[in-house]
Amino acid sequence: MTSWQNSGYRTRRPNYLHVTVGVGVAVAMFLVYSSLHCTPNETALISMAVFNFLFIFLIFPLEGPLLRKVFLLLSGNIVGLAWYLVQSSLGAASAYYLGVGALKVIYVVIGPVIDLIWIVSVWSLGLSFLASTHRRNEKEKEGTN
Prior knowledge:
By secondary structure, the chain is mainly α. The protein is 80% helix and 0% strand. It contains four helices and no strands. Helix 1 (16-35) packs antiparallel against helix 2 and helix 2 packs antiparallel against helix 3 (66-98). The longest helix has 45 residues, at 100-144. The chain is elongated, with a radius of gyration of 20 Å. It starts with 15 loop residues before the first helix and ends with a helix.
């Protein structure tokens, strides 16, 4: 029976320091939102909190530079705020043309699906960005050895 060390596989631990920094950055962003009085509605805050939770606990433990992960988290939150603005302008247009009742149905039925689209898209882009960086670093190590 071959052990993991003999077969060339290294055991890798999650980077808990990066996770801690990510939680701090997410909390700081929510404090900035509240101090600037640009707080979106409750559904947008919930979707951004879900994004931050998933992103921090699924991306930050992976290998990769901390600054790149923080940049991806910040850009994901900017995309979330932009998505909120687009969603609220579409909601205002639908309330004007379809009525307030249709607006409530759209927010309840379609809102979580639309939020899931941007959350999964930004999360997967961040994951692929870190993976491409990891592959590039491995190729550089192979070239120097």
